[in-house]
Design a protein that fits this description.
The chain has helices at 41-44, 54-65, 100-127, 162-178, 197-202, 219-224, 226-253; strands at residues 5-7, 12-13, 16-22, 69-71, 131-140, 143-144, 147-148, 153-156, 184-186, 210-218. By secondary structure, it is of the alpha/beta class. A hairpin with a 2-residue loop joins strand 6 (143-144) and strand 7 (147-148).
């Protein structure tokens, strides 16, 4: 199998390590499993098959932050990389009836390599003394079960973890300044504490060490495409840079010192402007 895609730079700025992931980046099916999906092309191309536009945005976030990107392009209908081990929704109604051995083979070939790569990158950053900021890029269907979703962009986080709430608040405020017409919502269209890779990782790391956010963009913008979709992506990226700008620049000015224990993740030690980034070549794993 092709390994999970891994590109971008080191993601390190001061005491913060940025990581971008995209679990539902494509609708690709390995040839061995293609017969299971015969006649289901429309399903594969729907929101059930993948998160349209999420990988494009993930790449742009990675480029802007010079952060590592780990992404996958196999369809979530084969196995959902964003579901925790043992979660019933990890396998779809198409792959769930497979025998235990066949499901284990899918796990070994696709699910476990992706999860372990992300977990290893985070563990190594934490071991170096960094605080990890993990952005997981997703998109959502405009209409679900006959109900129109009332947001353009959603920010999913655990409200009981102050660093996540702080970063989400600043990111949303910066995006609203760039486009006041956008409908921005917290923990929508899903709750930030619902099952997902970020929620799984929170069990392993304290809020001061791991900050995990799921970014959800309404797929109506992806479908419309054109300059408006490019503008929205640009605004989302620029707003995130603005949200972390002061803290990153402050840490760089302080000699890349780790912030004191009284300062929460996402808070700036100085009101500085200008982003200090480390250039790094893209790579694949």
């Amino acid at each position: 199998m092709p390994p999970p895609q891994h590109g971008g730079g080191p993601g390190q700025t001061g005491g913060t390590f940025f990581l971008i992931t995209c679990e539902h980046g494509g609708k690709r099916l390995p040839q061995a499993y293609a017969p299971l999906f015969a006649g289901r092309e429309a399903l594969l191309s729907s929101h059930r098959g993948y998160d349209a536009g999420a990988l494009t945005l993930a790449r742009e976030l990675s480029d802007a932050l010079h952060a590592p990107l780990v992404s996958a392009t196999i369809s979530r209908l084969l196995v959902d990389l964003n579901r925790s081990p043992g979660h019933r929704g990890r396998f779809s109604e198409i792959t769930r009836p497979l025998g235990r051995r066949e499901r284990a083979e899918i796990d070994a070939a696709y699910y476990l390599p992706y999860r372990r790569r992300v977990e290893r990158i985070i563990a190594q950053a934490v071991e170096r003394g960094s605080r990890v900021v993990h952005i997981s890029s997703h998109s959502f269907t405009p209409v679900m079960d006959g109900r129109v979703r009332t947001a353009d962009v959603g920010f999913l986080y655990d409200p009981h973890r102050p660093p996540e709430a702080d970063l989400s608040r600043h990111w949303m405020a910066a995006l609203a300044q760039r486009d006041a017409g956008l409908r921005l919502r917290r923990n929508y269209p899903y709750t930030g504490r619902a099952d997902g890779f970020c929620a799984w990782l929170r069990r392993r790391y304290a809020p001061e060490v791991y900050v995990g956010l799921e970014l959800e963009v309404n797929q109506r913008h992806v479908t419309a495409g054109g300059p408006a979709w490019r503008q929205l992506r640009g605004d989302i990226v620029a707003a995130l840079l603005h949200a972390v700008d002061g803290r990153k620049a402050g840490l760089a000015a302080a000699g890349s010192a780790e912030p004191g224990p009284e300062r929460k993740a996402g808070q700036s030690s100085k009101g500085a402007t200008g982003v200090h980034r480390q250039a790094a070549p893209s790579s694949t794993a």
